[in-house]
Amino acid sequence: MSTTTPYESIGQVKGNEMIISRTFDAPRELVFEAWTDANHLVHWWGPNGFTLTTKSAEIRPGGEWRFIMHGPDGRNYPNRIVFQEIVRPERLVYAHSGEEADEVHFNTTVTFEAKGERTLLTMRAVFPSAEALQHVIKEFHALEGGKQHLGNLADYLQKM
Question: Span 22-159: which CATH code?
Answer without folding.
Answer: 3.30.530.20
